[in-house]
C-alpha cells in the first residue's frame, strides 16, 4: 500500500512569504506528527494530532507556525512570514490505531529553503 | 529529561569491515530506544528497537544493538559493511506517554570501496 506522502518535495520561498506544506498519511492512520529537521541535525518534534484533534503543539517554534488536520486525514503545516531560520526539511509521520508510540511511518519530507 | 547523544557525526569504514555507531542516553529510568536510518531522498526507516526485553536487539539488514544500562549506551553494530549501508543513522528515544520521538544529532556513515 501507499506510504506517507508529502508535497511539495521542494519549496523555495522569499523571506516574508507564507508557505503551506501538505502531508497525506497512510490511509486509516489516526495519529499524525510533524517534525522539523535542520541541516546536519536530527528531526525535532513540532506537533501531534490524533484524528482532527491537535493534542500537542509544544514543539512549534513560534506563532508563525500553524498546523491543521480538519477531517482527521490530510494535514497542512503553514508557516507565515517565513524567515531564513525556517529553512529545513519538514517531515510528516503517521501511526495506526493501537500501535506503540514509536511505530511512526515517515514521509520523504519537504525541503523548504527561505531566501 | 530523556535525551540521546550520538558520539560521532561522521563514520567512514571500508566495505566488508565492521561498523560501530555510538549512542549514549540520558534517562531516569529504562527508556525505549531505537535506531532509524535515513537514505537520501527517502523517509526515515526503523532499523531496530529496544523496549526492555532482550538487551541484544537484532534489526534489519544485519544490524544489531546492545542496551547496556551500566554504560547508558545503545551502540549500533554490523559485522560487515555493505555499500548500500551508506546513510544517516539516528539514535532515538521515545518519551513515555508523550507520543513524541527525540532524535540524536545523527551519524553519517560512509562506506569506502
Question: Can you describe this structure?
Answer:
The complex is a heterodimer of chains A (115) and B (113). In chain A, the strands form 2 sheets. In chain A, strands 2, 4, 5, 6, 9, 10 and 11 form a 7-stranded mixed sheet that branches. In chain A, strands 1-3-8-7 form a 4-stranded antiparallel sheet, with no helix packed on it. The termini of chain A are far apart. Chain A is 0% helix and 48% strand. Chain A has no helices and 11 strands. Helix content of chain B is 0%, strand content 53%. Chain B contains no helices and 12 strands.
Please state the structural category of chain A. Answer: mainly beta
**Proportion in β-strands of chain B:** over 45%
Average pLDDT taken over every residue of chain B? 91
Distance between the termini of chain A: 37 Å
Helix content estimate of chain B: under 10%
Percent of residues in helices of chain A comes to under 10%
> What oligomerization state is this entry in?
heterodimer
For the largest beta-sheet of chain B, the strand count, sense and barrel status come to:
6 strands, mixed
Short description:
The complex is a heterodimer of chains A (115) and B (113). Chain A has 115 residues and is an all-beta fold.
Question: Keywords, please?
Answer:
heterodimer, A: about 120 residues, mainly beta, B: about 110 residues, 6-stranded mixed sheet
List the helices and strands and how they pair.
The complex is a heterodimer of chains A (115) and B (113).
Chain A: E1 5-7, E2 10-13, E3 19-24, E4 31-37, E5 44-50, E6 53-56, E7 65-68, E8 75-79, E9 88-95, E10 105-106, E11 110-114
Parallel strand pairs in A: 2-11
Antiparallel strand pairs in A: 1-3, 3-8, 4-5, 4-9, 5-6, 7-8, 9-10, 9-11
Chain B: E1 3-6, E2 10-14, E3 19-21, E4 23-26, E5 32-38, E6 45-50, E7 56-58, E8 64-68, E9 73-78, E10 87-94, E11 101-103, E12 107-112
